[in-house]
Structures are given as C-alpha cells and as structure tokens.
Fold this sequence. Notes:
By secondary structure, the chain is α/β, with parallel strands linked by helices. Helices cover 48% and strands 17% of the residues. A 7-stranded mixed sheet has the order 3-2-1-4-5-7-6. Helix 7 crosses helix 9 (226-236) and helix 8 packs across helix 12 (275-293).
Amino acid sequence: CSLLQEEGKGVVRATMGYYYDEGDAFNFYLTIWGGDHCHVGIYTAEEEAQDMQPPAGGVKGESTESDTILLASNRSLEKILELSKPAFEGRSEGLAMDMGAAYGGCARALSKKYGCKVVCVELSKRENEVNIQRNVELKMQDKIIVPGELSFLDTQQEAGVFDCCVSEDSILHAGKARPAVVAEAARVLRKGGLFVFSDIMQKDCVDTSTLKDVYDRIGLEDMGSPAKYIEWASQAGFQLKRYEDFSPQIAVHYGKILKMLEGPTREKLRGKVSDEYIVSMMKGLRAWVAASHAGSIVWGFFVFEKL
C-alpha cells in the first residue's frame, strides 16, 4: 500500500484504535452512549428545547438524559438504514461492511432489517470484544463477522463483492488518509454498490485557524469537507446519489453531553473515568458546540454509488 496509507494507519491507530481502548475513553463512551452507538444523534425540536439540568427543588433522573441521547442516536442509525435500502433490493442475502464498526450496533441493525451478513472493520480490540459478546448474546454471530483488529484503510476483504459499505462518524479519524478510506470502499464494493456514511466535517473553505480547539480535541490537523468527499469519491469511481445536511445537530448533541457532565452523570462516572479526562472532555465539547454555532463544522449523510 502507499506511503499515505501507511501514514494514515498510524493516525487511525493513534486517534481511534488505541484511544478507544484506553480505559477512560472506553468507559466514557460505553457509559454515555450505552454500548450500541458512538455517533452524533438526530434530535426532535422538543428534545432540542429540553433543559437537561435538574429542575429547581428536584433532581432530574439520569435515565432521562441517557434516553434522549439513545433515541437521537437511533434516529441517526435509522437514517443510515433508510439510505442503504437500495443496495439490498432483490438480493436474498446481501453482504455489507461497517467501516469503524465500534460496538456493532449499526451492523446488527443492518442485518436484522435486510437479512444481510456484515463484516465489522474496527481497530479497537475492546470494542470488538463488546461487539462479539453482543452478537453471541443475540445469537447473531453467524451474521456479524468480526475478523479482528482491522483498519478501514486496509480491510483485507475481497474486492468487488460487497453490496454496501456504511460508516458512522468514523472517517474523520483517518486524517490525511481519508481519500484512501473512500478508495478502499470503492475497491470492496460491487458495481452499483452503495457507500453510505455520515461524518463530522469542516465547512468548505473555512478559515482553519478558527478550528484549532476542535483539531486539538480530536488529535488531527484538519477534517474532511462535503466538497472534498465528493471529489475523493469521484476519483475513486463513485457518483454522488444524495447528501443530507444535519449540521445544527452537532451543537445539540454535544451540548447535551456537556450538560450531562455538568450534572449528576459526572458522579455516575466516578471510579470509571478520571476527573482529568472529564475536564478535558468538557473543554473539547465546548469547542465543538462553539464551532457548530459559528457554522464552521458540518455534519451530514452521503450516498455514493460505485460506477
């Protein structure tokens, strides 16, 4: 593989695989998202308006906060499933790949909805272990394949046989090697197969100096952008079928997690996540929210078809 791919693998291992295996990060995401999801949610207007701080004279239940994030995360998942549907039409048993599969929530949902087998590509050993355990508990180990710790820059899967590749807010972690992730999806997909993914991006032509705090939070020098993904996809042999923008949801999602950490949830994390990690996380969340309000970062869903 190319030097860019090799450098990209190092970035992904540093910012994603090893990061999510580290105790504080692993426990934080598992606790906040509940162990199926690890991505931005889509919130209703009513949920956006909710004040997640405890009301005066009372204590707001932790379950209310967690349930709101879970519901929103499920809506994001449903959007991925909806956009993936054409890839499986007319196929008795399709084959999909989840690039950056985390706990396997998306893979299991795809399999349940469309009857397909799903290969989970994930660098985090601990997240793979959670995925495997959940699959056994749900008797889905024959449908959800977890080959081990793999990078979405080099999935080690056969070329031209997958009906659909999906990814939820993962490709940003590939750094400068993001074009190689898009190219790898094109390599494994059959002609007419779909690449369906969401990602957090910087706005096209943004002044990158305004995003320093965001870059510091994710340990990267930049992010992709809608125009860049369309360019990289075209170079890899894709055509854009659809793009749906949900950028305002970034501020809502990370704002709600920030409020959770400012409330009783912080006590729930005690003994699982260090105070130092939580303080750093809160600083990072404030940076995400500020950048979102400024219109500097965007979030949306792409559908590309392999020509």
